Amino acid sequence: NAVSYPGVQLSWRRVISIAQNTPDPAAIDDKLEDEMYSSPTSRIQCMGRALQNMYTITSQDEGYIAFILTMVQELQYDCPVSMTFVKHIIDFSEIPSKETIRNTSIALLNNGVANCDNQKINQSIMWSMLARKFAGNLAEAMWQEEIATLLIQSLMDNSRSVKIFALLALESFALTGSIKKRILNHPLCIVTTLNQNLQECYSRLSESPAVASSPNLTLVSGLRRKYSGKRFYHGLIKRLKIRKTKKTNVVDPTTTTMACKIEPIDWSGLMQSQHCFQWSLNHVFNTPCLSPILLPKVYLNPRDCTSHCKLSENCLEIRNDTFYLESARATASVDSGVWYYEVLLLTNGVMQIGWGTKKCLFLQEEGCGVGDDPNGFAFDTYRSAVWAASEAIYPRSQRNSGQCKIGDVLGSLLDMDKGLCTFFINGQDLGLTIQFGHVVINFGERSWLYPPNTRHQPMCNSSNKIMDYAKQEQEEEHDWDGPLCTLCFSEPKDVILFPCHHDGFGRNCAKILEQW
């Protein structure tokens, strides 16, 4: 009966249609719809009513379950708008009871024989959001051993996206310590499964693909040296302590005939999978520590980035699997001269890449990063626009040349002497200017894929080094939640919970928490 809860699907489609400024599926009269959307204020009011309707639905036990199951069918995981609003609704809905969250997870599991990859991915996304949001007692109420079986089996799926989102769900559940132990002790052995996936990724990446005529494939030849040769492959196998087997299903023999035709999306998928599996082994499902590697001259500072960034071991590859805007800065600064660096895009996600001062604010929950305050500017790969102080300053019009895509190389040339910055996509000058994201950074340690036609220095030659482990300075402390309870926002927050010492709650909400 939960699946047939009335109005869930239509209410969700209405939220998305208002957000994307498309025809309202709930509108009966087109003229009335035009009047409703005639001004930004009208759209904001319509969105407020649509979201309130969703909150009303999710406040009921059956409605909450129906909403989660509807998302398995309706969610467009590759659409940033859809992902943002489903996260928003889960965050701002009433906290469900243990019974409701348990029934929700059971319904997801019973609905789990998904008919297509999209439904498998959406199922993992729902578990991931709920497990991360309700880490602790509610996550334990949600947990079933069958969930681990389903998700670990998904790590061996043919679809790389299914693998990555299943791993993300397992990582979210592992935030609760008792569940992490159960995952590690599961008969399917997640560590072995991750190592097998790593072996496959490294084997495929070690095959050197030929260069095609497409400009987007030139990046493969530029970076293939990193992943070519038997020495590299066998060195990784030895370093990761992976046993090579004689099973033919580890590396499909048919892939050798397709190596010369590998496309950027396939190559990007291998890079993403390798990064995710390795990061999960190193930071979540821990294996014995690997020997430290020699870091390059300039790299992304692991102590000067927000909390959910997934950095590679050499700190030149970074990924964001959360629904917030995560940020990171390099370990070098410049104050004169002409400087250049490149970024290889491995996904189509929303990313802002540019330059900022040490005062640039990183506030992931508020969506504030480089280009969102006066202390920096950045190129938006999703909207092909340059942002500064939360305003698109180039191009001024909303119509642009389209989005950056997987395999594109974004270059940034900063001339401090002339006071200008130029951005390039695949070597093409975009003009004078001041998406889940995953990129590879090149500060000049490797050859440029698209060198600029002007005298410059690579960022790795900068002598102004920021302290390797210096946390970004904050001039003053800010209480962004204000003086009210962070749950109900209707009474002063004057209670501290023991023994965990969590604060920010009012007395009435603290009593409710105590009853759980």
TrEMBL record:
GO terms for cellular component: cytoplasm. Keywords: Metal-binding, Zinc, Zinc-finger. InterPro entries: B30.2/SPRY, B30.2/SPRY_sf, ConA-like_dom_sf, RNF123/RKP/RSPRY1, SPRY_dom, Znf_RING/FYVE/PHD. Residues 277-471 form the B30.2/SPRY domain. One of its GO terms (biological process) is proteolysis involved in protein catabolic process. GO terms for molecular function: ubiquitin-protein transferase activity; zinc ion binding. The keyword Zinc applies. This is B30.2/SPRY domain-containing protein. It comes from Mucor saturninus.
